Protein backbone atom coordinates (compact mmCIF):
# COMPACT_ATOMS: atom_id res chain seq x y z
CA UNK A 1 0.00 0.00 0.00
CA UNK A 2 1.06 3.55 -0.56
CA UNK A 3 1.14 6.48 1.86
CA UNK A 4 0.48 9.11 -0.80
CA UNK A 5 -3.00 10.11 -1.93
CA UNK A 6 -3.95 8.30 -5.15
CA UNK A 7 -5.93 9.96 -7.92
CA UNK A 8 -7.57 8.83 -11.14
CA UNK A 9 -8.75 11.35 -13.72
CA UNK A 10 -11.19 10.33 -16.42
CA UNK A 11 -11.05 12.68 -19.43
CA UNK A 12 -14.04 12.61 -21.78
CA UNK A 13 -14.30 14.05 -25.26
CA UNK A 14 -17.18 16.48 -25.12
CA UNK A 15 -17.22 17.11 -28.88
CA UNK A 16 -18.62 13.66 -29.72
CA UNK A 17 -22.03 14.20 -28.13
CA UNK A 18 -22.14 10.69 -26.66
CA UNK A 19 -25.11 9.73 -24.49
CA UNK A 20 -24.57 9.47 -20.70
CA UNK A 21 -24.64 5.67 -20.83
CA UNK A 22 -22.06 5.58 -23.62
CA UNK A 23 -19.81 8.01 -21.70
CA UNK A 24 -19.97 5.84 -18.59
CA UNK A 25 -19.17 2.67 -20.51
CA UNK A 26 -16.26 4.32 -22.30
CA UNK A 27 -14.91 5.69 -19.00
CA UNK A 28 -14.99 2.21 -17.44
CA UNK A 29 -13.18 0.75 -20.44
CA UNK A 30 -10.49 3.45 -20.30
CA UNK A 31 -9.98 3.02 -16.54
CA UNK A 32 -9.59 -0.73 -16.94
CA UNK A 33 -6.95 -0.15 -19.62
CA UNK A 34 -4.59 1.58 -17.18
CA UNK A 35 -3.63 -1.85 -15.89
CA UNK A 36 -3.52 -0.56 -12.34
CA UNK A 37 -6.07 -1.11 -9.61
CA UNK A 38 -6.59 1.58 -7.00
CA UNK A 39 -5.28 0.33 -3.66
CA UNK A 40 -5.57 2.18 -0.42
CA UNK A 41 -5.49 1.98 3.34
CA UNK A 42 -8.54 2.98 5.33
CA UNK A 43 -8.52 6.73 5.79
CA UNK A 44 -6.50 7.22 2.62
CA UNK A 45 -9.15 6.47 0.02
CA UNK A 46 -8.25 7.29 -3.59
CA UNK A 47 -10.47 9.60 -5.50
CA UNK A 48 -11.59 9.92 -9.06
CA UNK A 49 -12.70 12.99 -10.98
CA UNK A 50 -14.19 13.32 -14.43
CA UNK A 51 -13.06 16.13 -16.72
CA UNK A 52 -13.42 16.88 -20.39
CA UNK A 53 -11.62 18.11 -23.46
CA UNK A 54 -13.16 19.55 -26.60
CA UNK A 55 -11.20 17.66 -29.25
CA UNK A 56 -9.27 14.48 -29.97
CA UNK A 57 -5.89 16.22 -30.16
CA UNK A 58 -6.22 17.31 -26.51
CA UNK A 59 -6.86 13.70 -25.47
CA UNK A 60 -3.77 12.52 -27.34
CA UNK A 61 -1.59 15.27 -25.87
CA UNK A 62 -2.64 14.37 -22.32
CA UNK A 63 -1.93 10.69 -22.98
CA UNK A 64 1.54 11.55 -24.25
CA UNK A 65 2.23 13.65 -21.15
CA UNK A 66 1.12 10.78 -18.89
CA UNK A 67 3.38 8.35 -20.77
CA UNK A 68 6.38 10.67 -20.46
CA UNK A 69 5.71 11.12 -16.72
CA UNK A 70 5.42 7.37 -16.21
CA UNK A 71 1.81 7.60 -15.05
CA UNK A 72 -0.49 4.70 -15.92
CA UNK A 73 -3.05 5.66 -18.54
CA UNK A 74 -5.68 4.03 -20.66
CA UNK A 75 -7.00 5.33 -23.95
CA UNK A 76 -10.34 4.00 -25.13
CA UNK A 77 -10.73 3.50 -28.88
CA UNK A 78 -14.35 2.75 -29.75
CA UNK A 79 -15.34 -0.39 -31.65
CA UNK A 80 -17.97 1.52 -33.61
CA UNK A 81 -21.01 -0.58 -32.72
CA UNK A 82 -23.30 2.18 -31.50
CA UNK A 83 -22.82 5.96 -31.40
CA UNK A 84 -19.43 6.79 -32.91
CA UNK A 85 -17.33 5.49 -35.78
CA UNK A 86 -14.93 2.58 -35.32
CA UNK A 87 -11.51 3.79 -34.22
CA UNK A 88 -12.76 6.96 -32.53
CA UNK A 89 -10.70 7.97 -29.48
CA UNK A 90 -13.33 8.64 -26.83
CA UNK A 91 -11.92 8.69 -23.29
CA UNK A 92 -8.58 8.80 -21.51
CA UNK A 93 -7.98 7.58 -17.95
CA UNK A 94 -4.91 8.98 -16.21
CA UNK A 95 -3.75 7.15 -13.09
CA UNK A 96 -4.31 5.98 -10.54
CA UNK A 97 -1.07 7.43 -9.32
CA UNK A 98 0.32 9.93 -6.86
CA UNK A 99 -2.04 12.90 -6.71
CA UNK A 100 0.72 15.44 -7.32
CA UNK A 101 1.94 13.62 -10.43
CA UNK A 102 -1.56 13.38 -11.89
CA UNK A 103 -2.34 17.01 -11.02
CA UNK A 104 0.76 18.17 -12.87
CA UNK A 105 -0.81 16.90 -16.10
CA UNK A 106 -4.51 17.49 -15.48
CA UNK A 107 -4.55 20.77 -13.52
CA UNK A 108 -5.93 22.83 -16.41
CA UNK A 109 -8.90 20.60 -17.16
CA UNK A 110 -12.48 21.53 -16.36
CA UNK A 111 -14.81 19.21 -14.47
CA UNK A 112 -17.42 17.46 -16.59
CA UNK A 113 -20.91 18.47 -15.56
CA UNK A 114 -22.91 16.79 -18.28
Compute the number of structural domains.
1
The protein's oligomeric status is single chain
| H-E order | EHEHEEHE
Could you say what the CATH topology is called? Bit1
Total DSSP helices: 3
In total, how many beta strands? Answer: 5
Q: Which second-level CATH architecture applies?
A: 3-Layer(aba) Sandwich
* Mean pLDDT figure: 91
CA radius of gyration = 14 Å
User: CATH first level: which class?
Assistant: Alpha Beta
Q: What does this entry look like structurally?
A:
With 114 residues, the chain is an alpha+beta fold. It has a single domain, classed as Bit1 (3-Layer(aba) Sandwich), CATH 3.40.1490. It has three helices and five strands; from the N terminus they run E-H-E-H-E-E-H-E. The chain has a five-stranded mixed β-sheet with strand order 3-4-1-2-5. The chain is globular, with a radius of gyration of 14 Å. The model has no long low-confidence stretch (mean pLDDT 91).
Topology:
Elements: E1 6-13, H1 20-32, E2 47-53, H2 56-69, E3 73-77, E4 89-98, H3 99-106, E5 110-111
Parallel strand pairs: 1-2
Antiparallel strand pairs: 1-4, 2-5, 3-4
Helix pairs in contact: 2-3
State the main characteristics.
single chain, 114 residues, alpha+beta, Bit1, 5-stranded mixed β-sheet
Short description:
The chain is α+β, with helices and mostly antiparallel strands. The protein has helices at residues 20-32, 56-69, 99-106; strands at residues 6-13, 47-53, 73-77, 89-98, 110-111. The chain has one domain (6-111): 3-Layer(aba) Sandwich (Bit1).
Amino acid sequence: MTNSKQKLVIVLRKDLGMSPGKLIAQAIHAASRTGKIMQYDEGNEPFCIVCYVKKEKDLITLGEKAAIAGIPFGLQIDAGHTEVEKGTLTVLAIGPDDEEKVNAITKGLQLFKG
